[in-house]
Amino acid sequence: MRVEGNTKKIAEDLLGHYDVRARRLPWRAPPGANAADPYRVWLSEVMLQQTTVAAVIPYFTKFTERWPSVEALAAADDADVMAAWAGLGYYARARNLLACARAVANERDGAFPDTEDGLRDLPGVGAYTAAAVAAIAFGRRAVVVDANVERVVARLFAIDIPLPNARPAIRAAADSITPETRAGDFAQAVMDLGATICTARAPACGICPLRTDCAAVLTADPAAFPVKAAKKIRPHRLGHGWWIERPDGHVWLVRRSAKGLLGGMRALPSSDWEAAPDPTPPMTAQWRALAAPVAHIFTHFSLALTVHVAHVTENCQPPGEGEWWPLARIGDAGLPTLFRRAADAVMKESAQHARP
DNA sequence: CAGCCGTGGAA
DNA sequence: TTTCCAAGGCT
Prior knowledge:
- Keywords: 4Fe-4S, DNA damage, DNA repair, Glycosidase, Hydrolase, Iron, Iron-sulfur, Metal-binding.
- It is an enzyme of class 3 (hydrolase).
- The chain is an alpha+beta fold.
- It folds into 2 domains: 4-224, Endonuclease III, domain 1; 236-354, Nucleoside Triphosphate Pyrophosphohydrolase (Alpha-Beta Complex).
- 40% of the residues lie in helices and 11% in strands.
- Strands 1, 2, 3, 4, 5, 6 and 7 form a 7-stranded mixed beta sheet that branches.
- β5 (294-297) and β6 form a beta hairpin.
- The longest helix has 18 residues, at 4-21.
- The model has no long low-confidence stretch (mean pLDDT 94).
């Protein structure tokens, strides 16, 4: 472990690099501008949870154009926000985003809390996001620890305890190098470094502004830090999805229950997803299965969804809650990726069917 | 507290 | 092709 004297040098080296090389990102105030808008900082941090910058940018642009303030977002319809989030994943974030916006708009007159503790009480705001918003939007000294910080700090100090047991040591080390001022810039500088130079697989140590501060660069394999515990194998599951199409060009869509996988999202009616799911259709009809199931990989299991198609009469009413959605606007339904792919597969096959 | 919760890009 | 990974939070 490093001694006190070097910790200040690390922040100075990194901030000096950041002042010249900071990435220009839509949620960052331009250099020399006033402090960033807390609404935009918070929105970006939530979107960036376990999500890459490249994936977030178009969603951030869309959200801030459509809902430019926390009050505007708080007044939005749930269905519109969920549909706008479709494709970004981890949909509990979108549900918590709305709950948080409404809490801030309705109970706090639109003002975000300006301390870590206050922010931490908001839905969808955990230890990381509270620290990041406190530091970036409000200039607080906060110790911001995300996956980038874990990697950079584990390398700087050559911490060889496997994750997640290394977390306390990593946090203490991160605390030791976090400066009293510019903690927000410092946090973003570490994340820029982690994203562009101190990357997970092939760190560019030769151009790293911290190479003279780093313990791992002196080892045979700097990329070996942080050490991680072995991960589990991903189980495979099967499922059935039901495409019910009306002759006037509508398909029957349902909304999934608020909790659990793809919670709150529009979807095709479908079975549970397990080793041997119930193949019983939701209604009697002439069912025909697509030749190839839709394969999709979630974080903790992979899925093969067999899509069954039925063409029903105009006055047909499937059981349960749902809505007839126009095929011409299927792209606006806000389907999560699994069901968007299922819809693509059905439309592609029916197009081929029409032109043999 | 370990498991649950998406997605797409990189290697 | 498969594996790994990303500005985590909730229960």
